[in-house]
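[job 4471] stage=fold_predict status=RUNNING
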Amino acid sequence: MLEHPDIVRVEKTGYANLVEQPEHFGTDYFGDEVLLGDEYIEHDGEIILKENLDRYLTEVMEFEFKQA
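[job 4471] inference complete, writing structure tokens
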């Protein structure tokens, strides 16, 4: 039985990592992936990505953002 050379190579060496992936740090309060280098805030033992801070303050802490 003949197999395609690419399949044989993948079976022997695994899939090539074409793009290096950043290292996983964990997940934030909302379940979003946190990667090394991401900015985050800690509050009461929770990790919140910086881009999710407004959402956390509004939904969890019940802050109201207003404009004068």
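[job 4471] summary: The first strand starts at residue 24 and ends at 27.
[job 4471] exit 0
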